[in-house]
Amino acid sequence: MKADIALPWWHPSRHADRRPALLARNRLQAGIRGWFGARDFLEVDPSALQVSPGNETHLHAMGVTAIGNDGAGRQMYLHTSPEFAMKKLLAAGETRIFSFAHVWRNRERGARHSPEFTMLEWYRVGEGYEVLMADTQAFLRLAGPLRFRDAVCDPGLEPERISVAEAFRAYAGVDLLATLDGALGDRDALAAQVRDMRIAPDDGWSDIFSRLLSEKVEPHLGMGRVTILDRYPAVEAALARACADDARAAERFEVYACGVELANGFGELTNPVEQRRRFEAEMAEKARIYGERYPIDEDFLAALALMPEASGIALGFDRLVMLATGAPRIDDVIWAPVG
Description:
CATH superfamily: Bira Bifunctional Protein, Domain 2
Number of domains: 1
Strand content: 15-25%
Distance between the termini: 25 Å
CATH class: Alpha Beta
Number of strands: 17
Number of helices: 9
Low-confidence stretches: none
CATH architecture: 2-Layer Sandwich
Mean pLDDT: 94
Radius of gyration: 20 Å
Largest sheet: 8 strands, mixed
Order of helices and strands: HEEEEHEEHEEEHEEHHEEEEEHHEH
Shape: globular
């Protein structure tokens, strides 16, 4: 008999019900570590406390006050990703690194979201972002058949690879490229194509894009087989290189199974001047929408000038375990969930 989910996670009967999925988590993590070790990757352990949590408009960080030896307080943040620290390690000379990092994000709690979760992130120097697609497929195959609610996905099948523009045309009836002018989005041109979805007067291009993606596109992705959603609009890829054949698109992809986004990969931008411009634009938009902005990590921009060409990706490890075990909630596969 299933334990009463009204009981706390630490109750013996509830823990007995959760334990098989938690042991499966450990086996999958060990398998992934072995896969990396066989390919000469180094596991790194970046500090979670950073001067900047990331500079994306809709990313919400947890701030903390760090007290120095002099008793003075300093605003710092728990990282939303180990990305900045890991790219500094690439600048320092590492070439293949990975990390199982605990990360923190505000405004994220639900069946597929925990405010603290484990991110598997890895980088390859001198290799294109397509290699990361094969890496991710290997990890999904280690996990075995994937399930979420009534959806199933066989990671052993050849994945579907579709561009964001193709997916929007197929599932939302929108010509996305026609709404893009270089790295900028034309809000009115996108709004004019939207049907059956309310648009608020203050919704920007990115707001409309995000809602179309979540409501119209994502429910169709990763059904039966894995979907690789490739070539994101450059305006939605602040840390990625532009595609060589079309500056409106960027070397960014996401991996989906059972309608659930599992991984987010990039051909990494290494131009510090362009990166600063994008960060400043993102923070201006964050200030407009949310009334706050996060500092820019100047050390990161300095390191970016030394960083070699690379590709990198982040995978939501708890979500992968959730789909591998068929668990209905992300808290079911976290050893000690957030209270």
